[in-house]
Amino acid sequence: MFNTITNAMNKIVQLFVCSITVAVLAGCTQPPSADDGKKVLEDWLDLPVLAHGEFRLVSFSKINSQKGQIQNAEGVTVQSYSLEYLGEIEALKRCALIDQANLAAFGKGKIYVIEESNPDFELFTNTIVNAGQRLTINGTIVFEKTEKGWKENKVVNSVLVAHN
User: Fold this and answer.
1) pTM beyond 0.70
2) For residue 83, what pLDDT is reported?
3) Would you place residue 159 in the very low, low, confident or very high pLDDT band (cuts 50, 70, 90)?
4) CA–CA distance, 163 with 92 (Å, rounded to integer)
5) How many CA atoms, within 13 angstroms, populate the side-chain half-sphere of residue 139?
6) What is the CA radius of gyration of the chain?
7) Residue 73 dihedral angles phi and psi, to the nearest 5°
């Protein structure tokens, strides 16, 4: 009878430990991967107000990352994950790039594209990119942790080098 009680107690303890382990593991999510960062940058390049889908991502690699805390859109402090990357983009057609060095009014760290059909296109002759031209791009993608996992909070980019 003592063995039956001991076995029952052991099973209860094992069940309790398993339940705690499952609960802890369910609350832990992996930080965003390089593939997550790549997807964010691909989506960012397709935004109509930014790159107009006039670039394609040729390569992407994660070069550093850091966990931290940020304030989300609601002003609540949440866990964050900053993913620094280096990539290469290719222009799909002739356009002009505007970054914070050329036109600060558009916003820090963002790349905006002026299509050749835009009347202001000729104002940016020093930033014209031809179809097929490649640019090295680097930056940081900041993710915030939510109840449903990690989501993009912001993307900060800068074009480093234009090459053919």
Assistant:
1) no
2) 94
3) low
4) 14
5) 23
6) 24
7) -60, -25
Query: How far is it, in rounded angstroms, from Cα 43 to Cα 55?
Result: 11
Helix residue ranges per DSSP H, the chain:
2-27, 34-45
Work out the burial of residue 80: count CB atoms within 10 Å of its CB; fewer than 13 is exposed, 13-18 middle, 19 or more buried: buried
User: Which residue would you say has higher pLDDT here, 161 or 150?
Assistant: 150
Cβ-based neighbours of 39, under 8 Å, separated by 6 or more: none
Cβ pair 138, 111 in contact under 8 A:
no
pLDDT digits 0-9 by tens, 21-44: 333 334 567 999 999 999 988 888
Q: Which residue has the higher pLDDT, 4 or 58?
A: 58
Q: How far apart are CA 50 and CA 100, in angstroms?
A: 13
- Look up residue 58 and give its DSSP letter: E
Give the closest residue to 132 by CA, choosing from 54, 60, 59: 54
